[in-house]
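From the pipeline queue, job 12 of 40. The input is one protein chain; the requested action is below.

Action: predict structure.
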Amino acid sequence: MAAEPVSGQAVQAPVEKHRVVILTDMEADPDDTQSLIRLLLYANEIDIEALVATTSIWKQDNIRPDSIRRTLGKYGEVYDTLSQHADGYPEEAALQALVMGGQPGYGMASVGAGLSTEGSDAIIRLLEAEDDRPLWISVWGGVNTLAQALHDIRATRPGAEADRLISKLRVYTISDQDDSGIWIRREFPDLFYIVSPGEYGRSTWTAITRAFPGFEDHISNQWIAENIQQAHGPLGAHYPDVVWGMEGDTPAFLSLIPNGLNVPDRPDWGGWGGRYELYTPSAEEIGVGPGKLGSGGVPLDPEPRPIWTNASDSYTPWVPQKDGRAIGPADETHDNNHVTLLRWKSDFQRDFAARMDWTVSSYEDANHPPVVKLAHDHHLTAKSGTHIGLDAFGTYDPDGDSLSYHWFNYPEAGSLDEPIDMGHAVNDFDVWFRLPEVTQTETAHFIVKVTDKGTPALTRYARVIVTIKP
């Protein structure tokens, strides 16, 4: 396959980015600073529209916008080097202008008439902007600033206009960290809401916080020190050591990164932030019961309606082989909700490390992700029982690195219960296999994972959705 010529120029940012407002209880735990540092490395690919300091169950009576500003200052110190690697990075001053305060007190006690803040007002202003894109609220702490915005919208806007504004909201919150989350879900039943209510240990997002059996790579304190903190300039040096868990808030924005896999409006399709399904979890699943409280003491109430919440994958890792095919299936298969995020963890950790390299290295001395191209549409239709070919011819690496390919079926993202056998040609840019027989129209998701052989090795994807007709 002939690769496209290497230009040596910065990679172009996507034409359309996802809009996001960050609500963060900075300094309740150093992991908010960790997550903010990672977010800033992707600020060229996500439209950050507000950075709002909030409270939470862990930090109930003060907010720390100054901590956000301090981290932005470190970003400003590496901006000139970082922006050599990709177009679209905002200057520090533009980001500093987005820092503001949310509700200064805890939970619903700080929500109501006359309690609006610059953070809650900003959410309303952004919803009213002439921009058809959804507005993502990435919640790293308490969510009462959003609750205040919703309270004000309902109190001051006609019903149809309020519904229109609320329909633009997309919420991904790292569990419930105050008592306003359940209020929002009860009062606004149509609001798009991703959350794992109950104890943190059952939550999908906790897969990022520590090493899980079979997924120990790229998570150790030594790896963090060598690849993120040390010899990586002022932004890397600012990345704090783990106290309670590594970057527990990061999954709330990982799925907004345009990597060819993520489709944030479809949490059931799976991506870097995990996979979620729309249903009403039972009181038993959440842990609701007499005298029971969630993590930190947040009250546990039954869920009043369907939410996007924990889903399980069955996943067998593919591992390097000494000879023959480059990769092959491991001996162990994992089945749980954590694996919906763990399956991508090495990919996004290496991507993080590469971006941190960008803060201290020239374009020529750093690695950049491959560009995946398909030789056909991303949506195909085929008759059941027939053969189909999937082809990533034209994929290239901007640094001229060698590429490895892995095509696989993601059964949980489609409508079929059983995985589709794609044969053995898993280490090539194209595959040819037979579709199953079906008695009704079904959908199947196929992913090509392309990884370069640079340092660190970087991965991008393409998703092909096949509609299978009887």
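Job complete. Confidence is low (pLDDT under 50) at residues 1-14.
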